[in-house]
Amino acid sequence: MSALAYAAADTAVVARRNLLRIPRQPDLWVSFTIQPIMFVLLFVYVFGGAIQTPGFDDYADFLMPGIIAQTMSFGGFVTAIGLSDDLRKGLIDRFRSLPMARSAVLAGRTLADVATNAVSIAVIIVVGLLVGFNFSASPLEVVAGIGLLLLFGYAFSWIFAFIALNSSSPEGAQSLGFVVIFPITFASSAFAPPDSMPAAVEAFANANPFSTVVDATRALFLGSPAGNDVWAAVLWSVGLIVVFAGLSVHKYRRAVSS
Amino acid sequence: MAEAAIAVEGLRKRFGDVQALCGIDLNAAPGTILGLLGPNGAGKTTAVRILTTLLPPDAGTARVAGFDVVKDAAALRSQIGLAGQYAAVDENLTGFENLEMVGRLYHLGRGPARVRAHELLERFSLTDAADRLTKTYSGGMRRRLDLAAALVARPPVLFLDEPTTGLDPVSRLQLWETIEARVAAGTTVLLTTQYLDEADRLADRIAVIDHGRVIAEGTPDQLKNQVGGERLEVTLEDYGQEAAAIETLAPLADERPKCEHGILVMPLNKARGDIAEAVRRLDATGVRIADIAVRRPTLDDVFLSLTGHAAEAEEEEAEQREEEAVA
Q1: What is the ipTM for the molecules in this complex?
Q2: Ranges of CATH 3.30.70.980 domains, chain B
Q3: Is the CB of B53 less than 8 angstroms away from the CB of A96?
Q4: Would you say A142 and A221 are in contact if contact means Cβ atoms under 8 Å apart?
């Protein structure tokens, strides 16, 4: 077998291992099922009445793409916690002493996390439909939108893999993650129209790639004109994956459990 | 002569301002156990991490199974097995799933990896627990599974980093027997330990390591002779009988017994039946005994004898500094 075939086979073994673990960690389910449901309900019923979203039938239509995109970025926490845990328990040492591809532990981790992200999307869409969200685009566009969200979630898994490899504990990775995620996801077009924000925040929100992903998903879910958002969102996601996968694998080679 | 299974020369490693290894030399012939004995923070784990390609050395050379740990790291990894003090098994996988995964990552192939997993579960008496998540395992079971994982690819060289730390005596004995069986089958083992009795029982040669230096090296007997053998400690009921006790026991010992604070200490030769003879003589001369005990040389004795300082608690702090520097 070629090195590439070994890398793919090793990645599949690690991904399978991580998938096997999911149903055995019920406490983890909270973060990728209950938590997004809570966010949908809180935003729709607490803030929904107060936030003006001109051009949208109701707040649920405006909110859903944003809340799914935010959940995808939160999916990174699953990646970070899983990796930190492996580091702390010495499993990464075992993997690094094995004749396996250097990229496989991280690639297998992030691939498996696409599965948890897919479960999250399914859960949110069901809840969204119950609280008044409606797809108003073709099925193909909806599928493309879900694909884009998964790609974006995959990018965030790599960002969080890098954060985890640079943190000394799962708690450290988690607090660093929150500091990164909250400004990026809230100072964006996800929950409120940027033109309702102060000028400086509006400028940040408009330049924020997270807004690009949210706008692209809105266009794909609601059938509104997308402009260049979809391609820009794909490019951003792929760019983030390339950069953070490179950084993470580089860091992994020297990773040391504390 | 066959090439040494482990050959280390002038290995150095520094973490921040902690010099973890100050140029150590080690050698192990194929099919033998080399014991690395030292307190926490002595550099044992750092040495193991370098030899298993987890950490690059700052200077020096190390060859394992004929492969350079830096230049041939990728090729070397298929020749080694590593079991650590933290029992690196996935607690959310079953015993079988853990071993199968490791087998596949050694590229045994799906079928052979499964066969090998069953084989090892059987050998380590884990067959009944094969389909249980390892988080339900006892500490001893986890260590056995960890060791089994290290053996999946039948590696010619095995690294065991404090394999029995924290184990109960029965599990410890079982693990010792397994390690001995591996060596009988031709595997070379590097074993780190804080326990002299463990090194004594298992190792063909022992390197005593302290502050990143090998301060003594030899067979267990050579080391123990350096430290002194077993001693008899007699606690007297009456301090006033110290002189009488020394005179009574002096003919039995190769060197004159010492007595302090009512405790008499003398070198012991069990082959001559010294214990019974000592008690008889003390009784005959009317020296009253409050307590009598045989003391074996401990790691502390080795350290006191070799370095003049005890293996004290500050070593643990050094270890922590080392870990922080690494992280």
Answers
A1: 0.88
A2: 230-295
A3: yes
A4: yes
